């Protein structure tokens, strides 16, 4: 109760401050600002529904739900408009789980409630004693909390409630954020300030942010978070830190969020005093068993471990000549008695393997299908290289029928302009989820492989690498909030389309005016293709500058490991450009099911968006529109720049709908985005021109600097850098 009061006070304070002084303070509220509804007819209608509320039952989660309903209604309709503890027989809104509802209502909802499982809900207008009553019901308290958040979101979007009949449940079990936060509060690939976890002040000091973070996550259905970087520090598993983690878990529990930790494979040596971390050594197994017992005594609903092993220098079972199955199952055994999970990442590629990096995870993991314990989830990035602006879906999806395979997206914009560029990522996520793997014939989409409809899975999951930091607006760029929101919505329902998500988010965060929502929706949707065009058009990939990945570096060729060099990926020479992954090349196409492998084996049947991902083609190769490849690449770079220009002019027209401060904040960011889009175009084209030896086609602006100038740029203090590659 204490924390709820604190929350309400702070929100009030921020709300007032936000309205009175600076819009950027209001950015703190995310999509939960619950703006006042000024349309008289609509607010009258909503008041009629919410005038007297019977909120049934009692628990920590229900208290949170009730407080949220209170806050939302007060902000949208005014304090005096509703009464919270009405008699259920006379209430206009009844909120209660199946067990709390009166039989006359319950009986009419029972069939729907049977469909919604542990986390779903029903929202319906029904007749009771000749009058209409709005009902939110669910099988569990968490379902009620999700239902309350949804009702408030529908109101925030000015949706009709009169005839509402909504039955909704998440289609994915584990809807998770991965924080790459270090114990010193730096965030690997973080562009929104320091980590929100204040380890030094925990466990005693509970930052209000933890509560607001949990609220925001619950409002979009996120139900698990791993707190620490996948490049893990074993100290997080020491008792001192576990007590801090326990405090966070207690904050998150009422919001239905389970805590996971990253487990460094060598922890038994580093903090356990053993001389080995060999997964088949009994002392090592014992050490993890005891560690699990210790953790569950503190956090009874602890989610489990997230592990990056034998990947980019992290320790793992292969250090002891064991394999991923040995490592994952050893940890899974320790967690099994407590229903915990091991999330084992499949992001592996080795400097000792000369094969195409894009093939290595599939080659290594597919033979293990069926060998992992049933509490092991194999987490695979959306594409086979690394969170690029565009990649074909990872060939592992749908190819491990006997394994609980979960998908990992990156919400933080490591390869998409950090938190400076406005890029609406649900468009990227949607493209991957909608891709057809053909693993069980046509229509075997990645979404179906993930939600368990393709193969029966013990557990399904979708993970996003968080873009959250302690910046006042949480995500650095105010529009990057949409990517956190959109990830959560897609994890709940991977079949939602990006337009719907954009529409919801714009209305909840900014304004319901069509003159704002429609052009801005288009801007969001187009923003993803814009970044592909000005960074990595036509299937180019991984041509970012070294380590920090800020800006272009297609010329980088001298790093220790071949596959860390951009030249490895674009292969530009005087004969052409692109990575040959056909049968004649690395044969990565063979990792995809038919008809994809045959299609992608030939340039003419490969979608042009993936052209240079799969093919090395001559500069005068003719594209679908008749342009040569060289001209096509150059024109795509220019198109990306022009698209940012268009975003700027659209935003210019939005002045009437947002505060002056917010408008100028986004305007400044868009201007940087334009400058950097120009930088990408000029640097890449000047460099590739040294091989193509051709002029820029008409319509492409001439570079204002030399190639040497672009090569000379250095950014030792770019944000988000990984401190050291061990
Ligand atoms: C890459 C990042 C690196 C991460 C790695 C991972 O550059 O910082 O540690 O992925 O996912 O994208 O493990």
Automatic annotation (TrEMBL):
Record-listed E.C. numbers: 3.2.1.131
Any GO MF annotation of the entry: hydrolase activity
Domain of life: Bacteria
Keyword annotations from UniProtKB, A to Z: Carbohydrate metabolism, Glycosidase, Hydrolase, Polysaccharide degradation, Signal, Xylan degradation
Catalysed transformations (reactions): Hydrolysis of (1->2)-alpha-D-(4-O-methyl)glucuronosyl links in the main chain of hardwood xylans
Gene3D superfamilies: Alpha-glucuronidase, C-terminal domain, Chitobiase/beta-hexosaminidase domain 2-like, Glycosidases
Enzyme kind, highest EC tier: hydrolase
Coiled-coil intervals, chain numbering: none
Domain (Glycosyl hydrolase family 67 catalytic) ranges: 156-474
Cytoplasm listed as a keyword: no
Glycosyl hydrolase family 67 C-terminal domain location: 475-699
Pfam families: Glyco_hydro_67C (PF07477), Glyco_hydro_67M (PF07488), Glyco_hydro_67N (PF03648)
Alpha glucuronidase N-terminal domain mapped to chain residues: 30-151
InterPro entries the record matches: A-glucoronidase_C_sf, GH, Glyco_hydro_67_aGlcAse, Glyco_hydro_67_aGlcAse_N, Glyco_hydro_67_C, Glyco_hydro_67_cat, Hex-like_dom2
Signal peptide from the UniProt entry: 1-22
Quaternary structure annotation from Swiss-Prot or TrEMBL: Homodimer.
Family statement: Belongs to the glycosyl hydrolase 67 family.
PANTHER family, per database record: ALPHA-GLUCURONIDASE A (PTHR39207)
UniProt name for this protein: Xylan alpha-1,2-glucuronidase
Species for this entry: Maribacter cobaltidurans
């Amino acid at each position: 109760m204490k924390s709820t009061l604190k929350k309400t006070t702070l929100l009030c304070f921020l709300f007032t401050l936000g309205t009175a002084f600076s819009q950027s303070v209001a950015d703190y509220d995310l999509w939960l600002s619950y703006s006042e509804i000024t349309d008289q007819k609509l607010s009258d209608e909503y008041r009629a529904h919410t005038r007297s509320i019977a909120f049934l039952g009692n628990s920590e989660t229900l208290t949170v739900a009730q407080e949220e309903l209170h806050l939302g209604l007060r902000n949208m309709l005014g304090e005096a408009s509703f009464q919270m503890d009405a008699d259920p027989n006379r209430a206009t809104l009844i909120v209660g789980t199946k067990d709390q509802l009166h039989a006359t209502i319950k009986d009419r909802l029972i069939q729907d409630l049977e469909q919604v499982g542990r986390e779903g809900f029903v929202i319906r207008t029904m007749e009771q004693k000749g009058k209409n009553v709005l009902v939110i019901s669910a099988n569990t308290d968490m379902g009620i909390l999700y239902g309350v958040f949804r009702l408030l979101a529908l109101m925030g979007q000015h949706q009709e409630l009169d005839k509402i009949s909504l039955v909704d449940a998440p289609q994915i079990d584990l809807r998770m954020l991965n924080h790459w936060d270090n114990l010193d509060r730096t965030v690997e690939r973080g562009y929104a300030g320091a980590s929100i976890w204040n380890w030094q002040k925990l466990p005693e000091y509970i930052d209000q942010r933890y509560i607001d973070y949990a609220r925001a996550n619950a409002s979009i259905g996120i139900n698990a978070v791993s707190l620490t970087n996948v490049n893990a520090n074993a100290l997080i598993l020491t008792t001192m830190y576990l007590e801090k983690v326990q405090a966070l878990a207690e904050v998150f529990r009422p919001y239905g969020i389970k805590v996971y930790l990253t487990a460094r494979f060598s922890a038994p040596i580093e903090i356990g005093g053993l001389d080995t971390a060999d997964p088949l050594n009994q002392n090592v197994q014992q050490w993890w068993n005891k560690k699990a017992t210790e953790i569950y005594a503190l956090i009874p609903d602890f989610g489990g471990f997230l592990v990056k092993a034998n990947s980019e220098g992290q320790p793992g079972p292969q250090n002891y000549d064991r394999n991923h199955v040995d490592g994952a199952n050893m940890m899974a055994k320790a967690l099994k008695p407590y229903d915990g999970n091991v999330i084992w990442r499949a992001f592996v590629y080795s400097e000792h393997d000369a094969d195409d990096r894009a093939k290595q995870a599939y080659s290594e993991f597919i033979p293990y299908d069926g060998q992992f314990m049933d509490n092991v989830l194999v987490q695979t990035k959306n594409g086979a290289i690394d969170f690029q602006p565009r990649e074909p879906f990872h060939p592992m999806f749908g190819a491990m029928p006997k394994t609980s395979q979960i998908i990992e997206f990156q919400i933080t914009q490591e390869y998409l302009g950090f938190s400076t560029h406005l890029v609406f990522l649900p468009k990227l996520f949607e493209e991957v989820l909608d891709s057809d793997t053909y693993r069980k014939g046509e229509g075997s989409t990645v979404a179906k492989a993930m939600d368990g409809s393709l193969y029966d899975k013990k557990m399904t999951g979708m993970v996003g690498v968080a873009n959250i930091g302690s910046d006042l607006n949480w995500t650095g760029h105010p529009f990057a909030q949409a990517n956190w929101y959109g990830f959560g919505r897609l994890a709940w329902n991977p079949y939602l389309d990006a337009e719907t998500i954009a529409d919801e988010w714009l209305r909840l965060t900014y304004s319901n005016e069509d003159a704002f929502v429609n052009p801005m929706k288009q801007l969001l949707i187009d923003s993803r293709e814009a970044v592909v065009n000005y960074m990595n058009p036509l299937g180019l990939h991984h041509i970012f500058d070294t380590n920090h990945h800020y800006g272009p570096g297609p010329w980088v060729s001298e790093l220790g490991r071949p596959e860390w060099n951009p030249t490895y990926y674009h292969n530009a020479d005087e004969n052409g450009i692109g990575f040959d992954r056909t049968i004649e090349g690395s044969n990565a196409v063979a990792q995809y099911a038919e008809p994809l492998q045959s299609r992608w084996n030939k340039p003419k049947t490969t979608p042009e968006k993936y052209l240079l991902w799969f093919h090395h083609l001559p500069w005068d190769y003719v594209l679908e529109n008749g342009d040569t490849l060289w001209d096509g690449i150059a024109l795509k770079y220019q198109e990306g720049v022009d698209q940012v220009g268009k975003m700027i002019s659209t935003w210019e027209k939005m002045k009437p709908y947002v505060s002056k401060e917010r408008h100028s904040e986004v305007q400044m960011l868009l201007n940087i985005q334009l400058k950097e889009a120009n930088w990408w175009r000029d640097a890449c084209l000047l460099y590739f021109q040294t091989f193509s030896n051709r002029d820029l086609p008409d319509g492409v602006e001439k570079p204002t600097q030399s190639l040497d100038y672009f090569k000379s740029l250095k950014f030792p203090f770019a944000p988000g850098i990984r401190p050291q590659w061990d």
